[in-house]
Design goal:
The protein is built from 3 helices and 10 strands, in the order βαββββαβββαββ. Helix content is about 20%, strand content about 40%. By secondary structure, it is an alpha+beta fold. The protein has a single domain, classed as 2,3-Dihydroxybiphenyl 1,2-Dioxygenase, domain 1.
Length: about 160
């Protein structure tokens, strides 16, 4: 099975957890101090929010989560055959999970993550706590950078009468 993945940076985690829980009619499958994730079956989506956007709110990246190595290898081969730029991370840690992943970047600069989750971990990214401050900041976001800038598509502010 493939599951669509959306990751959005937010400025107020609790407020957004309340909003998306009401919208989805379900509580998150995982909540951390800076992160929440819903694993929905209808529609099949892995929807994540975090406060790790370094001041930028909006869409961070899209992707597809797969259940097995064969599906991930097929997606990687399809991208390679189409001569797409591929950033292969292999086995890595991010978003409180250990995974095998690669990235594609579309013509607008929007990153697409293809990944298979191998297991949960207790931290956002392993090595983060022991890293030097500058290195920890660079590791704060798992999304690849294009032209030296983190990718984030800002969303318009909600009207003041809303929420």
């Amino acid at each position: 099975m493939k599951r669509f993945h959306v990751h959005i940076h937010v400025d107020d985690l609790d407020r957004n957890i309340a909003f998306y829980s009401a919208m989805f009619g379900a509580q998150p499958a995982r909540v951390e101090s800076d992160y929440a994730k819903w694993m929905l079956d209808d529609p099949a989506v892995n929807f994540a929010i975090s406060t790790r956007g370094q001041g930028q709110v909006g869409l961070d990246h899209l992707g597809f989560q797969v259940d097995n190595e064969a599906d991930l290898a097929a997606m990687k081969a399809q991208a390679a055959q189409a001569d797409m730029s591929l950033i292969d991370e292999g086995q890595t840690t991010c978003c409180y999970a250990r995974s095998d992943k690669h990235w594609l970047v579309d013509p607008q600069g929007l990153p697409w993550e293809h990944f298979r989750t191998l297991g949960n971990i207790p931290v956002f990214r392993e090595g983060e706590a022991s890293a030097a401050p500058a290195q920890a900041e660079a590791q704060a976001c798992c999304t690849p950078k294009v032209s030296g800038k983190p990718i984030s598509i800002p969303v318009k502010s909600a009207p003041s009468r809303c929420c």
